[in-house]
Amino acid sequence: MDEKIKYEMEFPIHASPSLLYQYISTPSGMSEWYADNVNSRGEYFTFIWEGSEERAKLLGKKSNERIKFRWEADEDTDFYFELRIQVDEITKDVSLMVTDFAEEDELDEGKMLWENMISNLKHILGST
């Protein structure tokens, strides 16, 4: 397997951290912007896109702050994806920080996918 490259992206979002957290940490919230449908059973989340399914294990979460998953296909690796809410202490601006991994030849595609998904999220939140 090719080595994956870690990358981080920052998206300013005009929404409260608690509202944003509902959209990044719950199956109902994530199914509004991340996948067509999201189900969870215990520590596993199933993401469904146009008939294809991917399972991810919930690695950790902290209320109103972050959530971290590992795809089942990456089970024996250190690869994960994390959505973290960052609030600027001075301006109180809210950003969603995305950490993910991609193979070198899929890096641009991965970033573009996140940009599109976060754009959907902003639209739903009225934060365009």
Describe the structure.
With 128 residues, this protein is of the alpha+beta class. It has a domain of 86 residues: START domain (Alpha-D-Glucose-1,6-Bisphosphate, Chain A, domain 4, 2-Layer Sandwich), CATH 3.30.530.20. Helices cover 25% and strands 42% of the residues. Strands 1-7-6-5-4-3-2 form a 7-stranded antiparallel β-sheet.
What is the secondary structure topology, with strand pairs?
Elements: E1 4-12, H1 17-25, H2 27-30, E2 37-41, E3 44-49, E4 52-62, E5 66-71, E6 81-87, E7 94-103, H3 107-125
Antiparallel strand pairs: 1-7, 2-3, 3-4, 4-5, 5-6, 6-7
Quick overview of this protein structure:
It holds the Pfam family START_2. By secondary structure, this protein is α+β, with helices and mostly antiparallel strands.
Q: Trace the largest sheet across and list its strands.
A: 1-7-6-5-4-3-2
Give the ordered list of helices and strands. Answer: EHHEEEEEEH
Q: Which regions contain 5 or more consecutive residues with pLDDT less than 50?
A: none
Helical proportion?
25-40%
**In CATH terms, what is the fold-level topology of the domain at 4-25 and 62-125?**
Alpha-D-Glucose-1,6-Bisphosphate, Chain A, domain 4
How would you sum up the global shape? globular
- Number of beta-strand segments: 7
What's the architecture of the domain at 4-25 and 62-125, going by CATH? 2-Layer Sandwich
Domain START-like: 1-126
Protein name: START-like domain-containing protein
Pfam families: START_2 (PF19569)
Organism: Aureitalea marina
